[in-house]
Amino acid sequence: MKAHVQITDLGTPALGAHLDHLQILSPYPRGLAEFYGRCFGMTVTPLHDQWLCQGPQRSLLISSGAGGTLGFAAYAVADSSVVTALTQRLEAAKVPFQHSTTPLFEASSVGFSDPDGNHLVFGIRAMDGNSSSDASSLPARLQHLVLASTNAEGMLDFYRDIVGFQLTDRVIDASGLMRTCFLRTDLEHHSMAIFLADSHRLDHHCYETSDWNGIRDWGDHFASLRVPVEWGPGRHGPGNNLFVFVHDPDGNWVEISAELEEVTADRPVGSWPHEERTLNSWGRAPLRS
């Protein structure tokens, strides 16, 4: 199933960043951290007043708070010029920002909130991102974040026009309303997506594994731990990636993905119909938007 391609303004070059780590809040942070340690091959260590879960190319901070809540999302950049240019755009748009507080980034990082109140941090890694408790840990790097919003168009405007993400694909319903948008920071199809919903919330976060055999291995791993696959295996339309989803103990959706599309810098924005086959070209799908 292919997107209907629409020719559109291709915008500025991609931001040059990747999703490095998340802070997730939980009423039972230690228990949630232990779940990610066991199920996702991460070391779990106390760090100040939270828990650091860290494996090969995947890191989470888990802190006390309301379950299913994103504390912040942190995107790593290659050098300080990206942060400088971002702060200039935030300043020009009168978006408040501050030098931020994640312990995994250098002090020059910049933090700000989007129109829904989600907190973002951009900066340079200060701590090793390849720690693992088990040399045999399955490959799966933290790759993208998906947010639900009552104001998807406004969020798209903010992330594209101010932060500097590029729009890759939209999902449009029969009335012409945008239900979902996929945004990239480099040549991978998306490192963030935004769903139209009835509330602001974290929808899911995703780890990218090697290939179809990697999806199989993760499925076997979850089965060995009696963690059921809640959705999949399947294939998304936008991004063309294979996937399975599980739930963590707080009910957060967590995705394992493989073979995500890489795009060229001049790729036109795609438009997809709002239907199940867009979310899963192989079969059924929850139309969360």
Count of distinct strands: 18
Report strand %: 35-45%
Mean pLDDT: 92
Our count of domains comes out at: 2
Shape: globular
Q: CATH fold name of the largest domain, please?
A: 2,3-Dihydroxybiphenyl 1,2-Dioxygenase, domain 1
How would you name the CATH homologous superfamily of the largest domain? 2,3-Dihydroxybiphenyl 1,2-Dioxygenase, domain 1
**H-E order:** EEHEEEEHEEEEHEEEEHEEEEH
Q: Low-confidence stretches at least 5 residues in length (pLDDT < 50)?
A: 4-11
Provide the CATH top-level class of the largest domain.
Answer: Alpha Beta
Alpha-beta classification: alpha+beta
The largest beta-sheet arranges its strands as 1-18-11-12-13-10-14-17-16-15
Q: Kindly state the percentage of residues in helix.
A: 10-25%
User: What integer value in Å does the Rg equal?
Assistant: 18 Å
Q: Total helix count?
A: 5
Distance N to C terminus:
20 Å
Task: Quickly give the CATH architecture of the largest domain.
Answer: Roll
Main pleated-sheet profile = 10 strands, mixed
